[in-house]
């Protein structure tokens, strides 16, 4: 018969004795031990939190306040004292939004909107881009400004964009402001999506706050299915591939063979997908358990038949935000603007300078610069509607450039955004010459090669995204370019990394499974008893604990 002592002994044997110091560490910020969804600490804290939440489900402001306090604690455990930055930002934006809503004069409303945007971007710019600007200035003008010791608060880009969307939607009169600050802070600080999205739009989320909390059995089924799938993606696949292969190759690509560089590129493609979509799945699932529906953020993006299709499937909340608040704001496909022409012009000018500076060593960079400019020019010069296509492509390119810069302060992120912007422009002119027939789906071969080409272009772009700097990305690409057919060497490498490659294969197979198969798995899961589902979830968390390597790995998008 199992006794309390035997259970206690088993717990101590597997997890160790709990001390006062350990209990304190659960509630005190530690830079090396952030509160992540895929940790046992989060599971324990969330279960306690959720138990109390159940008793507050019929209240309103008490429930909102309770979630806000837990959200602030969650952010404190991720960024320490910088949770106060979130509070400061929310107070300023809430106050300005109230002024804009009550103001009747358009010029005054626009003035306060500009103040809000400047303050938000200045805050984001200091913490995320200050050192990048200093390094750029020092390199260009031989300056000697010292770098700042700046801590990057986790997820600052996400909650800044979310806060900006709220005030812009009020300015556009698409929504009315919240009734008070508590409701607004609940929207901005909602912990499931606070640090890495999905980026929630005010007009989609705020109405849910005022609805009666209604958690159905199907919601619980959907939530648990998403959380379990997200945990497996993040911890079993992404973490293992990252620590045991991808990170090693990208840290020192010259120490590895061409084949290993190639496989690391494929590995990173599935790693970042499993990492980010896994986080999004868990965020959506946890929000569902609280009675809130967050937008889908990924729709099997590597099944995309074009780069345009890819951006309808990848990080959907960000691409939608960029379209609605950046692309449309600078003119969209209607008109040009100073900003719309400025950023692509600066990029191509910089690309040309880079090519010229490398001319004495190699002519290839100059050829790349010239070909890139030519391709972009042809993307609108060959169009039957040159003026409109020119405007569209410049605005689209600006959006992707700034989208790249949003992800990180470095030349490699700018190049990543530029490549996607150029590809979108090329695809638009391609579709003008070879329009798809709406009443006829493409044949299998056409679809297969479209997916294959799109996937490999995306993987190529991921090299810049993953590399620590532009030079490292070029090293990886150069190594892959020297690939030769050596089956015996490849076999040796595959056997040496059999666990890594096995998980990569598992991740890709899972991703490319037909939707009908996934729905079938979901149907079987829905029919299992709740107790069995809870056991499965607990088992997955045990796997997370048992297979943890080098501690819990932070989500990739935490750095953004």
From TrEMBL:
Keyword list, A-Z: Acyltransferase, Cell membrane, Membrane, Transferase, Transmembrane, Transmembrane helix
Topological relation to the membrane, as annotated: Multi-pass membrane protein
TM stretches of this protein: 35-53, 60-76, 82-99, 111-129, 141-161, 181-200, 220-241, 338-357, 363-383, 390-407, 445-465, 493-513, 534-558
Highest taxon, organism lineage: Bacteria
Pfam families given in the database record: MBOAT
Keyword Amino-acid biosynthesis: no
Subcellular location: Cell membrane
Family: Belongs to the membrane-bound acyltransferase family.
Stated name of the protein: MBOAT family O-acyltransferase
Species annotation: Flavobacterium chungangensis
